[in-house]
Amino acid sequence: MESANTAPIRYVGFWRRLTAYGIDSTLVQIIGFLLIYLLGAVANAATPEESINLLIQLGWLPPPQPGQSVTDVLMASGASGAPLLGLGDLFILTTTSAIYNIWFTAGQWKATPGKRWCRMYVIRDDGKTLTLGMSAARWFASGVSWLPLGFGYLMVGFTKEKLAMHDAICGTRVVHGRYI
């Protein structure tokens, strides 16, 4: 595949993509945790007791024995006592990641801020830009790249066009340069 000025397209390798991912992950977490902080009352509407009762009902925690406190049940189950993210928090972080990645990749830059900083952008395998729907499919497919212990991302180092598994699934490529 060649670009409009007939220069060959250069595909982006693993390390540069990892760097862009690190930048984007940091930005998503900052935005997500800011939203969690601002929407804390909504995101953490369930009380700790309600959350623990739900975990007991789901079978993830054993029911307490007579005289056993909730703390005893948690400690017996291997909990450290450190606060965890609630389901609402995880929902906010996941939604933030989805909107961030889908919007930027289908937007004018054709790249997330991390990809743009690292001078790369995402195109279809025919060289055209991604639609919003294609960008959404690529974000969902990126979850598949994590499933086999991240092997889907490691594929970048072993394929001619430096494809991650989600790129192969969606027919996308990550290339050097800035989309103009």
Topology:
Elements: H1 14-38, H2 40-43, H3 48-58, H4 70-76, H5 87-106, H6 113-117, E1 120-124, H7 132-146, H8 151-154, H9 165-170, E2 172-176
Antiparallel strand pairs: 1-2
Helix pairs in contact: 1-5, 5-7
In short:
The protein has helices spanning 14-38, 40-43, 48-58, 70-76, 87-106, 113-117, 132-146, 151-154, 165-170, and strands at 120-124, 172-176. It is mainly alpha-helical. The protein has 2 domains: 14-42 and 87-176, no CATH class; 45-85, no CATH class.
Comma- or semicolon-separated keywords:
mainly alpha; 2 domains; two-stranded antiparallel sheet; 9 helices; 6% strand
Task: Indicate how many domains the architecture comprises.
Answer: 2
Tell me the radius of gyration.
21 Å
The average pLDDT value, as a whole number, equals 84
Instruction: Supply the helix-strand structural class.
Output: mainly alpha
The N- to C-terminal Cα distance equals 18 Å
Output the number of helix runs: 9
Low-confidence stretches: none
Total number of strands? 2
Largest sheet: 2 strands, antiparallel
Order of helices and strands: HHHHHHEHHHE
Strand order of the largest sheet: 1-2
Instruction: Specify the overall morphology.
Output: elongated
- Range of helix content: 40-55%
| Beta-strand percentage range | 5-15%
